[in-house]
UniProtKB/TrEMBL annotation:
<keyword id="KW-1003">Cell membrane</keyword>
<dbReference type="GO" id="GO:0005886">
    <property type="term" value="C:plasma membrane"/>
</dbReference>
<dbReference type="Pfam" id="PF13231">
    <property type="entry name" value="PMT_2"/>
</dbReference>
<keyword id="KW-0812">Transmembrane</keyword>
<feature type="transmembrane region" description="Helical">
    <location>
        <begin position="12"/>
        <end position="36"/>
    </location>
</feature>
<feature type="transmembrane region" description="Helical">
    <location>
        <begin position="104"/>
        <end position="127"/>
    </location>
</feature>
<feature type="transmembrane region" description="Helical">
    <location>
        <begin position="133"/>
        <end position="152"/>
    </location>
</feature>
<feature type="transmembrane region" description="Helical">
    <location>
        <begin position="64"/>
        <end position="83"/>
    </location>
</feature>
<keyword id="KW-1133">Transmembrane helix</keyword>
<keyword id="KW-0328">Glycosyltransferase</keyword>
<feature type="transmembrane region" description="Helical">
    <location>
        <begin position="378"/>
        <end position="396"/>
    </location>
</feature>
<keyword id="KW-0808">Transferase</keyword>
<dbReference type="InterPro" id="IPR050297">
    <property type="entry name" value="LipidA_mod_glycosyltrf_83"/>
</dbReference>
<dbReference type="GO" id="GO:0016763">
    <property type="term" value="F:pentosyltransferase activity"/>
</dbReference>
<feature type="domain" description="Glycosyltransferase RgtA/B/C/D-like">
    <location>
        <begin position="111"/>
        <end position="229"/>
    </location>
</feature>
<feature type="transmembrane region" description="Helical">
    <location>
        <begin position="232"/>
        <end position="254"/>
    </location>
</feature>
<feature type="transmembrane region" description="Helical">
    <location>
        <begin position="323"/>
        <end position="341"/>
    </location>
</feature>
Length: 506
């Protein structure tokens, strides 16, 4: 148990962790009873399938998160069985009906698991910055990480990206210890966590570069021989532990290596590398610049990424080895991922602990430079406000939106009250397909090229914002707008005359 003095010492970190968890759990049931993200079912079904076969049978993603989810599911099933054995189901079910609603409850559990991992990732970020710099910088870095908008958003889903960042952050912490102490177990644990990150998502393997980097920076600063037998043996051991971590998380990469090495379908890991594609050097630079100016600022909440590059200028001036340890791996991943044909936001998530750590360092650096300025207290408030307010506002906005009913859930509720078995349904997008599966008794058709016989009753449901139709002769019976709620804009018309030819929006 924490003593009062220990609790007081960590009160800011505990407050950050509490808020990080709160903002990630707020809206965690978004979309229920439907699952609209296409990747969530793949994670949950793979995890549940481990009950029957420990080999998921596909390697488009590595398997660690499947096994961890299965472990959590197993404990939940035992707990639920105990409640039933004690005769408590009738009392608890009215209060928490989702507990007996399969498979929806497993999506909820996995989302909560992801949110918890996302929130506590602030701990290794704090430890890293505390180890490299000081406690004040560490607290700020933890706060920055807790509020990164895209990380908060992704923590609401049962996916592999947030867990991968969790392992990368721990790998970064032990890598920082490699630089500071050079002890064997720091090398070993840094490698192990890199392996676990890779066993969660293959992108995690890119961060293996930081362990040898820490070794080089350490021997240069200590003026030791880079071929020191002890140091090299530690480095080799780190690589071995990385392999062990990957093997523990994805053992069937070795036991079923023929499937693992396939590149002709999503069953194989090599397909994943092939699927992201690659671009030439000029296009890579163009994508890097575009992502730095547009995509990443929005994902980070603007201020943290600005602080990151402001600190990069300080690095050129100060040449701090500690900053090199944070910058070189993250810049390497930035440049490498920008060479993919597909550069989605979640491909960059592994650099989040690095950006947050640099943000904490930069804020502390400015603090120390302004400490003797007469209006120091005011400037301190301004600095923290600039660094944290925009990420906070964007994260709160996103969680608020997710906490409100999806437009497709509202469509489902409306159809449940208004549709009859005789109604014909025409829709233009797969966005609403999960909802219409609940009305399988109705005749349905995707696309507006074919209409039912004249005089048929029913509805036309439009959710594809890339097309426009002339429905001026039809009565609109429902319009659902995504104003501070998730989901597409949905228009529902009564089925009457045939529409005019749709026009693609430029």
């Amino acid at each position: 148990m924490l003593s009062k003095s220990s609790l007081g010492k960590h009160v800011w970190l505990l407050a950050i962790l509490f808020f990080a968890l709160f903002i990630r759990l707020w809206g965690i049931n978004h979309g229920f009873p439907f699952i609209f993200h296409p990747d969530e079912p793949a994670v949950i079904r793979s995890a549940m399938g481990i009950r029957f076969d420990p080999n998921p049978g596909h390697f488009d993603w590595p398997h660690l998160q499947f096994y961890l989810n299965y472990g959590v599911f197993f404990l939940f099933i035992k707990f639920r069985g105990l409640l039933q054995f004690l005769g408590l189901q009738t009392k608890i079910s009215p209060l928490f009906p989702i507990l007996w609603r399969d498979p929806l409850v497993f999506y909820a559990i996995s989302r909560v698991f992801s949110a918890v991992l996302g929130a506590v990732t602030a701990i290794p970020v704090f430890l890293t910055v505390s180890n490299l710099f000081n406690r004040r910088a560490a607290i700020i870095a933890a706060a920055v990480f807790a509020l990164l908008p895209f990380h908060v958003h992704t923590s609401h889903y049962a996916l592999v990206d947030v867990p991968m960042v969790f392992w990368v952050a721990w790998a970064l912490y032990f890598t920082s210890r490699v630089y500071v102490t050079g002890r064997f177990w720091d090398y070993a644990l840094a490698g192990l966590f890199v392996g676990l990150a890779t066993a969660t998502k293959y992108n995690g393997g890119l961060f293996a570069v930081m362990v040898p980097l820490a070794y080089v920076l350490r021997v240069v600063e200590k003026r030791e021989s880079i071929t020191n037998p002890s140091g090299l043996s530690f480095l080799i051991s780190s690589a071995a532990f990385a392999g062990l971590g990957f093997a523990l998380g994805t053992p069937y990469a070795f036991l079923d290596y023929k499937t693992f090495l396939r590149a002709d379908s999503p069953l194989g890991a090599l397909w994943q590398f092939k699927n992201v594609g690659s671009v030439d050097f000029v296009t890579r630079l163009a994508q890097l610049v575009r992502n730095l100016l547009v995509k990443l600022p929005d994902d980070f909440g603007y201020a943290p990424i600005i602080a990151y590059f402001a600190a990069l200028i300080l690095l050129v001036k100060n040449k701090s080895p500690k900053l090199w340890l944070l910058f070189l791996p993250s810049l390497f991943v930035l440049v490498y991922v920008s060479g993919f044909a597909k550069t989605r936001s979640h491909y960059y998530m592994g650099i989040y602990p690095f950006v947050a750590a640099v943000g904490g360092y930069f804020a502390d650096y400015v603090y120390s430079k302004l400490q003797n300025v007469p209006i120091w207290q005011f400037l301190r408030v301004v600095l923290l406000t600039l660094l944290l307010t925009i990420p906070l506002a964007l994260s709160v906005k996103d969680s608020l939106i997710l906490s409100r009913k999806d437009t497709r859930v509202l469509l489902y509720e409306w159809l449940s009250k208004n549709i009859t078995v005789l109604d014909y349904v025409i829709y233009d997008s797969d966005d609403v397909a999960p909802v219409l599966e609940k009305f399988s008794g109705n005749t349905q058709h995707k696309g507006l090229s074919r209409f039912p016989p004249e005089g048929s009753q029913g509805y036309i449901i439009l959710s594809d914002s890339t097309k426009t139709y002339d429905f001026t002769n039809r009565k609109i019976v429902l319009e659902l707008l995504p104003n501070f709620r998730p989901g597409p804009r949905i228009l529902v018309y009564e089925l009457t005359d045939r529409p005019k030819v749709p026009n693609e929006r430029k």
